[in-house]
Amino acid sequence: MATKTLEDIPGVGPAIAEKLQEACYSDIMAIAVASPADLSEKCEIGEKKAMDIIEGAKLCADIGGFETGEDILERRKQITKLTTGSKALDELIGGGVESQSIMEFFGEFGSSKTQICFQLAVNATLPEEMGGLDSDVVIIDSENTFRPERIIQMATYLGVDPQETLRRIHVARAFNSQHQVLLVEKAIQLAEEKKIRLMIVDSLTSHFRAEYVGRGALAERQQVLNRHMHDLLNFATLNNAAIVVTNQVAAKPDAFFGDPTRPIGGHIVGHTATFRVYLRKGKAGKRVARLIDSPNLPEGEAVFLVTEDGIKD
Ligand code: GTP
Ligand code: MG
Question: Using CA atoms, how far apart are residues 269 and 247, in angstroms rounded to an integer?
């Protein structure tokens, strides 16, 4: 079957196809899962027209119906698991970080959220024989904490070319929450040229926390964050990619477990992330990970180390 183009969508001619392309809706599936308000705003078309295009795209992409359990099983067979570098941590999360889902690491400062992100980025670029995904990686860096020097240390330890590893990691600084949301669209464009099986957002929530202050801003913050999470999940589904996000929480472990709203973004982030792992500092440089929420895994804990060479048991 010939691949469909945007102009195969009913109601889309060359002019609208161009607008869609310019607004980064270059894939029929991406249009099918878009919201009418977004599509209308970004392509400067009426909301009614946007709804028609989305409906047309749904027909073209053959989505919107029910799938059998067997189909879902088939899709899930494509899921890959990316190693964190620690066997104990991998086991806790069911064998590694899964594609087609969002994994959230949350914890206080210094709990090693960023270090885990670096290690996963390096591991994703590794060949499959080495447990990698032979893939490029996108990192959305909202705290300016990306350190190429750490990537070089980790790659060197694994015996792979550090320069080549750095070439495969695409980092964009997010200057504010709006910019952060837009960078996901940039990543969709990049994924057309390069195989991207891992996208990292470190941190997911810091700009949101800083910008939407006070009770009055809460509803709007949650709405934007919700959309951002869904954009990320769409990316995961379209590219069979793993999404890893980080989230800082205040260090009050006692109060924490009784109050699931403590990580910022609360219910929104919690309900959209497929896996949530709480990280805390242990004794003698150890880190403890605790699986909080998973559709099919038991809760539990794993201990790992952060070393100069990376994440280890
Ligand atoms: P915030 O972003 O501030 O919320 O913290 P985070 O959870 O991202 O912490 P991060 O991953 O930056 O962890 C920092 C910790 O990793 C440090 O406290 C160090 O203990 C450890 N670390 C970082 N680099 C090295 C290294 O080269 N060698 C060793 N042994 N430890 C390191
Ligand atoms: Mg960090």
Answer: 9
- Per the structure, how many domains does the chain have? 2
How far apart are alpha carbons 83 and 171 in whole angstroms? 21
* Among 35, 61, 87, residue at a domain's last position: 61
Span from the CA of 237 to the centroid of ligand 2 (angstroms): 26
84 pocket-lining for ligand 1 (C-beta < 6 Å): no
Residue of higher predicted confidence among 63 and 22: 22
Chain mean pLDDT for the chain: 88
- Residue 242 alpha carbon to ligand 1 centre in Å: 22
Residues 173 and 267 both lie in one domain: yes
Residue 44 Cβ contacting ligand 1 at under 6 Å: no
Q: Is the CB of 228 under 6 A from ligand 1?
A: no
92 and 235 assigned to the same domain: yes
